[in-house]
Known about the structure:
CATH superfamily: NCX, central ion-binding region
Number of helices: 14
Order of helices and strands: HHHHEHEHHHHHHEHEHH
Helix content: over 70%
CATH class: Mainly Alpha
Radius of gyration: 20 Å
CATH topology: A middle domain of Talin 1
Largest sheet: 2 strands, antiparallel
Number of domains: 1
Shape: globular
Mean pLDDT: 78
Amino acid sequence: MNVLLLLQTLLGFVLLVAGAEIMVRGAAELATRFGIPPIVIGLTVVAFGTSAPELAVAIQSSMAGQPDIALGNIVGSNILNILLILGLAAMITPLIVGSRIVRTDVPILIAVSVLLMIFAYNGGISVIEGAVLFAGSIIYTVFTIFTARRDAAAEKEFSPDEEFSDNRHPGISLLLVIVGLAMLIGGADMLVKSAVEIARWLGVSELLIGLTVISIGTSLPEIATTVVAAMRGFRDMAVGNVVGSCLFNILVVTGAAAIFSPSGLSVDPALIQFDLPVMLAATVACLPIFATGHLIARWEGFVFFLFYIAYTTYLIVASHSQESVELMHTAMLSFVIPLTFITLLLLWWREIRQKKKNG
């Protein structure tokens, strides 16, 4: 294997980790200085910034007449954000979930996920529907910023494990965010390119590369930022980054891809029948998990992680054996997902009863 390829892979990882560290620190300093809860920074600046690779891929592929790449990357990234990224972060350290996330942002995410399914149901997302989604992102961002400083409950949730000095000029903190973001995007791009070359050298099919390496590669900034934020004690920013990234992917990335596409985005039937329902299921599952104690426990993160492994296994099997994929499809939709939802609802119901008892 080419030594330069290995060095490029190593440099990509270094840029990714260092960029995440720098951007989280800069964003946290801005939040401290201006009295903005880190969760709001995570929902907007950090989330939108780390989703830049998805936006670039979506616009480029839609303009090139490759809608499957654009929508597949969007849906796959949202599934990865919730199941893999939150799962890994929660397995490292239990994640605090702010009341704002449960009360406002997750319900909005569920609503826009349903809206995306409605738009996609007829086999295509038109330019007008894309414009509606994009306009929704502007409304959400303005709403988030204007309600942040008046949200007393969210202000109280700002309790990171380390403090930052107020002596640093806010311009420097903003520069840290920009530099960290540039390092994240650059590192992710290097890793994706080197991973593709390594996969080809190993003889892996390009279809499998697209289903795994590309979707994971464009989400590497979210993975790095969320894990670093959780480890640094900004556990509400970690959750906010994931929820904000999912919202950004649906509203901005899908909207922009449809707008830039000459005739809107065509939607593959397989996406409608399986991947979009899985994305919605993962999104809805967040509500009872987040609301239970306002905490994502390690075991819940492990369950998320297992579901992502199952989903990825399905994608790999689907590219090789049609009979096996039909069996897995039936098992997932008819047994595994319903059983999981029943368990989550029972936990949520128990939490509500416990609160009433204590209240």
